[in-house]
Design goal:
The chain is α+β, with helices and mostly antiparallel strands and 582 residues long. The protein has 4 domains: 3-221, P-loop containing nucleotide triphosphate hydrolases (Rossmann fold, 3-Layer(aba) Sandwich), CATH 3.40.50; 224-335, Elongation Factor Tu (Ef-tu), domain 3, CATH 2.40.30.10; 340-449, Rossmann fold (3-Layer(aba) Sandwich), CATH 3.40.50; 458-571, Elongation Factor Tu (Ef-tu), domain 3, CATH 2.40.30.10. The relative contact order is 0.09. The model is unreliable at 574-582 (pLDDT under 50).
Length: 582
């Protein structure tokens, strides 16, 4: 069977705002990044870069590699983040052949960079570090090696560079500046670049071509006549074409008229290709500046728009294979779980694509935030009902997170009426940050409410020679031995009976809301007489009702609070028919 050498697939990934898309913009001379929500890529895009462009960028540098393989160019994939990289998968590994990890040189490895490295390790994907934003170094001179920069620029560069080297070492990688690497199979190359000015981009492209030759010489051969295998990047509604899918074909060939099996919501879709549209070289799959070219066949590796009936249920990140019924089970196995409900307390998540859903659920998992229900599509009233049910059990989890998912106006009103929060955002990292901020504010609000309405565990002692008034109200000096003393606290006496309620707390003549362990304050007590109900030196506790205890357990109890509750349990008797069980 006749074979050809396909284009290497290069995945560009890194932390938010590290400059991934800007780097590709420089290469293709477009401005896609400026049109992204929040300046962050939210869906996966593919850009075909012909070898002639690479040669033009690299100039004489390309001759240093002494290329032995004949590649027509490189196919770059720009991802929303490291999570989407896992969506670009094929059976047994990743679609990407090589990765470029873009790092802001001044920040070093950020959390998403470290997680990206873990994924690269998992798939055994060779990668290069693009140490971006060198132009932000004061006095940096373009097209000059770091070793030949002015002294102050050189000092700042190497301070950040060696910090990055150390961080990579902690991740188990030996790394060095690209021109100092002697064995690319054992060392990670770091290329200083500026995505804004293009400084270092020729060297970066040279390194990519070098890695291609080092690792992929025997892996890029594909049979021209074998059925295509691909991954869906996006599902789009196109005027005059209906629902289409943008895909990367990483193996074989797809032809107009071929039967294809497409991963979808529910059962996989079996349909027939009506048209294949390819963006022109250096154009971008997500946002081509020029019209697509209609072609009869597409060979790996290429980005292509597939026009076919019945694609409305297709999902981003799902496989697309040339074939028929015999491939349905294989596609179902690769799809895995795309919509689910779990019997746990957790947030409700809606997203627009499979990749988006996977991304946000992975992030939530990394932040120890449980998910009760995940699904694709717009937010529904049923989602609100389920979130409301969760809220009754745990107010910090009873909400909906909508990533790029539509929230219809009637559903938004329904959520407001049921006091269900809906956090909607087009930037995956921001939606997590918004949730964490919301949860923190909610927790503080609940704590303040509990302090006003719920008794708190406290153990305090009446100080000797500090009885200022014996009754109506009694006024005494006390020391808080442990816990938190609040106004309106009912008092548990040494004999286990309940008598009196704190009316006010003062410190140095000023009224205060509470006193904590170690504080010495004056308190006034209603319905209490010193000498009859308690004496100087006596240790008193807060009375904790069963309802109080239930509310307390919804918050966070310290070890000190737990110990006080044990002591209260030993003293507390049945009161008003309620047996309290701390």
């Amino acid at each position: 069977m006749e074979a050809k050498t396909r284009e290497p697939i290069i995945c560009v990934l890194g932390h938010v705002d590290s400059g991934k898309t800007t780097l590709l913009d420089y290469i293709r001379g477009s401005v896609v990044a400026s049109r992204e929500a929040g300046g962050i890529t939210q869906h996966i895009g593919a850009t075909d870069v012909p070898f002639e462009v690479i040669r033009g960028l690299c100039g004489d540098l390309i001759n240093k590699i002494k290329l032995k393989i004949d590649v027509r160019g490189l196919l770059f994939v720009d991802t929303p983040g490291h999570e989407a990289f896992t969506t670009l998968r094929k059976r047994g590994g990743s679609v990407a052949d090589i990765a470029v990890l873009v790092v802001d040189l001044r920040d070093g490895l950020m959390p998403q960079s470290i997680e990206a490295i873990a994924i690269l390790k998992q798939y055994k994907t060779p990668f290069i570090i693009a140490a971006n934003k060198v132009d932000r170094i004061s006095g940096w001179q373009k097209s000059t090696l770091p070793q030949k920069q002015p002294q102050h620029a050189r000092d700042e560069y190497f301070k950040h560079f060696y910090n990055l080297i150390g961080q990579l070492s902690e991740q188990g990688f030996d790394a060095d500046q690209y021109n100092q690497v002697t064995d690319f199979t054992k060392q990670v190359a770091i290329v200083p670049v500026s995505a804004e000015t293009g400084d270092g981009v020729p060297e970066l492209m040279m390194m990519v071509m070098g890695l291609t030759q080092t690792y992929l010489t025997d892996q890029l051969s594909v049979a021209l006549a074998s059925p295509a295998k691909g991954t869906i990047l996006e599902v789009k509604e196109e005027t005059g074409l209906g629902t289409t899918v943008d895909a990367i074909i990483y193996d074989g060939v797809i032809r107009k008229g071929d039967s294809i099996v497409v991963g979808a919501r529910g059962e996989p879709v079996i349909t027939k290709v009506k048209a294949l549209l390819r963006p022109k070289a250096l154009d971008e799959m997500r946002d081509p500046r020029e019209k697509f070219k209609n072609v009869d066949a597409v060979y790996a590796a290429y980005g292509v728009k597939i026009v076919a009936p019945g694609l409305s249920r297709a999902l981003s990140g799902a496989p697309v294979y040339v074939g028929g019924e015999e491939l349905v089970q294989k596609v179902k196995e690769e799809m895995g779980e795309i919509e689910f409900t779990k019997d746990i307390l957790g947030v409700i998540v809606k997203a627009d694509t499979l990749g988006s859903l996977e991304a946000i659920i992975n992030l939530l998992s990394n932040n120890n935030i449980p998910v009760k229900k995940g699904g694709i599509g717009q937010v529904s009233k049923q989602d609100v009902i389920e979130a409301s049910a969760v809220s009754h059990e745990n107010k910090l989890l009873g909400l909906i997170l909508a990533f790029n998912a539509k929230v219809p106006e009637d559903v938004a009103r329904y959520a407001d009426a049921h006091e269900v929060e809906v956090i909607a955002n087009k930037v995956v990292y921001q939606i997590i940050e918004e949730y964490l901020e919301w949860a923190s504010e909610k927790k503080d609000s609940q704590k303040r409410l509990r302090e006003k309405t719920v008794a708190h565990p406290v153990k305090f002692q009446i100080l000797k020679d500090h009885v200022f008034r014996t009754t109506k109200p009694a006024i005494v000096g006390v020391e808080v031995l442990s816990g938190t003393l609040l106004n309106k606290t009912r008092i548990l006496l040494p004999n286990g009976r309940v008598k009196g309620r704190i009316k006010g707390i003062q410190s140095e003549g000023e009224s205060i809301e509470k006193a904590v362990s170690g504080d010495k304050v004056a308190i006034s007590i209603d319905d209490f007489t010193v000498g009859r109900h308690a004496d100087e030196g006596d240790i008193l506790y807060a009375f904790i009702s069963h309802d109080d205890l239930t509310e307390l357990k919804k918050g966070e109890l310290s070890e000190e609070d737990k110990q006080i509750l044990i002591e209260i349990k030993e003293k507390q008797k049945t009161n008003d028919g309620i047996q309290v069980r701390p």
